[in-house]
Write a structure and sequence with these properties.
Three copies of one chain form a homotrimer. Chain A is an alpha/beta fold. Chain A folds into three domains: about 5-95, Udp-n-acetylmuramoylalanyl-d-glutamate--2,6- Diaminopimelate Ligase, Chain: A, domain 1, CATH 3.40.1390; about 110-315, Hexapeptide repeat proteins (UDP N-Acetylglucosamine Acyltransferase, domain 1, 3 Solenoid), CATH 2.160.10.10; about 325-353. In chain A, about 15% of the residues lie in helices and about 25% in strands. Chain A has an eleven-stranded mixed sheet. In chain A, a hairpin with a 2-residue loop joins strand 21 (about 190-195) and strand 22. The radius of gyration of chain A is 28 Å and the shape is flat. Chains A and B meet through strand 4, helix 2, strand 27, helix 3 and helix 4 of A and strand 8, strand 21, strand 22, helix 3 and helix 4 of B.
Chain lengths: ~350, ~350, ~350
């Protein structure tokens, strides 16, 4: 059902976002789109100032932006302090989150062990497996090809996308979402060199994910050798991330794609790791630390610190280092010239004495 | 059926490769192999000059190489301008591409929603799922464990290897091949920090792959938040690649394993990205650009430019920088010596005045 | 069944680990845990000296450590030369490796082609597929969602965790373990540029894994274009690793997560590769070489060599380079000052003459 632009502003008011409207409140809004792709019935937004010049060309019915933006006069504009948060609210209200209807599938069934316990209203698709003594909470959606191993304990309102694999004894909190192909609880790289061969150490620990954790596609989180690998409440991870055995990640962290953490790392709360960053084992990453893209972190990072580079160092030092590195060919040439000029002076002074 | 070496040359003539044969045209050729492994009934090739010394030892019936190669006199040689292209043709003609016969499987069936539409001659294996309102084109091969989500639209002659996952509304062109375990259309890392928590932004966009796209194993391509993530016609990707939401990749690009692109990247046509390269969001990579292995690209790259390093810079600058970096210990020591020598001069001149 | 601490020492004696016990041999030991998490009925260990201070606070019934460790007097201590090996033995003896019981699954069956041959006592789970002419050895465990392609040959005592995919003609030795989601034998990135388009080279080679190989989750090992991609006996790999076509890895190697090898690499025996390392194609990594985390290896590495950095160089050179790099801002400033001081001298000397 379409809203008017005034109704859209009322939604934002409900979220205490204090929108101010400049334009036609009766304009009909059917949904949200980018500046480039929006049609006359869609609302768009400007959050990254880099795209400001696109305001002139958009066909959008209205644009959500910051107070200081000078939009073209013909454009309906909703001004809020945080356009990104506002558009998040509008996408959720106008489009909603993905629904997981019970499909009418022909030709298959779920594979459920008799000792498994599945909560009420859970939707276990044909081709999913729930193994012995596993428990799945209420309202769970378990897509085809998912494997829930023996004795796993899964909370309520969990979504496991196709082909997710949970090894034995994995624990998931409530409202956990795991995207397709991700593997939780596989054995880590635990071998002892005994007599010139790698002898496997039985990995008898588990993995535990807190509430509201979301993990992207094709990740891998090792079970602990002993004890548990833990991901705290509210932490979100992107795709192709590898977490080593016994590592503990705090709450409300955000990891970008292809991040890799070795084993026994202690990560605090609200830590951000950018893409392809790597962290060696047995160190601590402090609360609210930020690890830059491609950083190679070899030492513990203090609370609130931002590090960059490989080996990673604090960002202000890395910026100076990179600036000097970019001038290194010139510096090297200068050194060569200094050597010559100095030799010349030395020669002349040698003659002089 | 074996060919004679003369017939092999005729195949290359059909492709306008103008082969010249030195040797015995009646020699029987049953297939293609490497110089090291070829038997007396197989033809081999030399493309990388690094391996030229292996010509002496090969047992191959004949070797395809460049005109300027001086092969041992006993060896049958087919000379062409591009041996790599020639051997590609010969593998395709003598061995052919993988066939996907309809297996005679016992004990299972495909899971197909009644509202799904599957084209004629499509081969949907037992254990594959085609969800509600999805359409699959003619001659498709859909292996076990594949999940085709609601409302996906898949072209003709598509091959989906085992355990590929297509989220809802994914669009694939004709002749698309996706290797095992790859996930297309999963939600990207889209959260807004509202009130100190990560609030998920519904990811209402889609992924669209053009014709003749081939994607390797265990990759992940995020659906767009709004609009579409797009991979252009003829683009080929290797394994374990992560593509962020809203990124657009042009036509006929080639990405090597473990490349990662953040969201909202614009990649032109015929771009090459080497292994483990990473690209930050919201920048443009120009047509025919080349991104070196492990590069960390933080700024837009011009058409035809080759960049290397992290942060990535044009290759000729990076080569100078690396050369200086390799000499940095010596340069640093020279600076230390210069400082001493200069202090000595200053001392002497101080005394002199 | 619980052991006494004396019985635990007897186990270690059986493995010729020559334990010496200081403490109460009658103490009951039910299992193994970390220093932090051990209860009064569990034995723990100290291997990494970094954690020595945790000895004071542990509740463990006993601790395995090196002879030179001065443990608190109240603690039962078992001293051995190699605590890590000892605790490996104890975990294996007291807890054992994962068992793979035959589940009592309702609602599904394995998909087995009539021409496939499955050895005695093999456990093929519902939802696994064994395609035409494949052979699976004795005592194999094949979890749900596994796909074993046509003509694969799998040895005895093999474990394939859920959703592993083996493409056609893949060969696995005895006692191979492959973790969930890993893909073996997919086509590599083999295309020839012919007439301005990428023409696919049929990938007619295979992948062969030796005995006792273990591969982590969500890896990808390309089949060879011609011949074979090979992983030698006893080699262990972690998660999200990409191995290119035609690469040969030796025996008893250890690869950490997210390592990537291009095609046609020759890796010797007992090579260690740390996390996120990458290796370009067509080079050799010598026996017992060590490749550091995030290294970008662009040249062959000698036997026994340790390399670091990108481009990777021998570790002692890299350490000097990094040390100089960390001082580069100061060195650059010194050069600037030297230039000024030298100009001043030149000026004065110019005046003097």
């Amino acid at each position: 059902m379409p809203h008017t632009l005034s109704q859209v502003c009322e939604i934002l008011e409900r979220y205490a976002m204090q929108p101010t409207l400049a334009g036609d409140g009766r304009r009909s809004i059917a949904g949200v789109a980018t500046l480039e792709e929006a049609s006359e019935e869609q609302i768009s937004f400007l959050s990254n100032p880099k795209y400001e010049k696109m305001l002139a060309g958009t066909r959008a019915a209205a644009v959500v932006c910051k107070p200081e933006i000078a939009a073209p006069p013909h454009l309906n504009v909703v001004r809020v302090a945080d356009p990104y948060a506002a558009i998040t609210v509008l996408i959720a209200e106008l489009h909603g989150y993905r629904r997981h209807p019970r499909p009418r599938i022909v030709g298959g069934a779920a594979h459920v062990a008799p000792s498994a316990v599945v909560g009420e209203n859970a939707n276990i698709h044909p081709g999913a497996t729930i193994d012995e003594h596993a428990t799945v909470g209420r309202n769970a959606t378990v897509y085809p090809g998912v494997y829930v191993g023996p004795r796993c304990r899964i909370g309520d309102d969990v979504t496991l996308y196709p082909n997710v694999v949970l090894y034995d004894d994995t624990v998931l909190g409530n409202r956990v979402t795991i995207h397709a192909g991700t593997v939780i609880g596989n054995d880590g790289l635990g071998y002892a060199p005994i007599g010139g061969k790698w002898v496997k150490i039985p990995q008898i620990g588990i993995v535990e994910l807190g509430d509201d954790v979301e993990i992207g596609a094709n990740c891998s989180i090792d079970r602990a050798t002993l004890g548990r690998t833990r991901i705290g409440n509210g932490t979100k991870m992107s795709n192709l991330i590898a977490i080593g055995h016994g590592t503990h990640v705090g709450e409300h962290c955000m990891f970008v794609a292809q991040v890799g953490l070795a084993g026994s790392v202690e990560v605090g709360d609200r830590v951000t790791m950018a893409g392809q960053a790597g962290v060696v084992g047995h160190i601590r990453i402090g609360d609210k630390a930020t690890i830059g893209a491609k950083a190679g972190v070899t030492n513990s990072v203090a609370d609130g610190e931002t590090v960059l580079g490989a080996p990673a160092i604090p960002v202000r030092e890395m910026r100076r280092q990179v600036a000097c590195l970019m001038r290194l060919p010139e510096t090297t040439e200068t050194v060569k010239q200094l050597d010559k000029r100095l030799a010349e002076l030395e020669r002349r002074l040698g003659e002089a004495t």
